[in-house]
Amino acid sequence: VRTRLAGAALVRESGPDTFTLSGTETFAESAKQAAAPPPPVTTPGGLDTEAFAAGAKAKVTPPPRRRPR
Fold first, then answer.
1. pLDDT single digits (tens) 13-68
2. What is the dihedral of CA 50, 54, 60, 65, to 10 degrees?
3. CA dist list (Å): 17 to 12, 13, 40, 62
4. How far, in Å, CA of 16 to CA of 35, rounded?
5. CA–CA distance, 5 with 2 (Å, rounded to integer)
6. Strands in the chain per DSSP E
7. Cα angle value 26/32/37 (rounded, 5°)
8. Phi, psi torsion values for 54, nearest 5 degrees
9. Half-sphere exposure of 6 (CA within 13 A, CB side)
10. What is the DSSP letter of 28?
């Protein structure tokens, strides 16, 4: 009985007459104005990439060789 009562309450609270989708343009426009613009696009420097690759290669150890069976 409680499940049916809870279901009926949910239908009443979320039925088609309980809300509308009017005014979405105003909401979207205010959200766009409040949003921060993305940072400017930059290209990475070649030295930073080379230093990163060299550092990564220095840390790498090859996997152990498999012994023949």
1. 887 777 777 888 998 999 998 998 888 887 766 667 788 888 899 998 888 888 87
2. 100
3. 9, 9, 45, 66
4. 31
5. 5
6. none
7. 170
8. -65, -40
9. 3
10. H
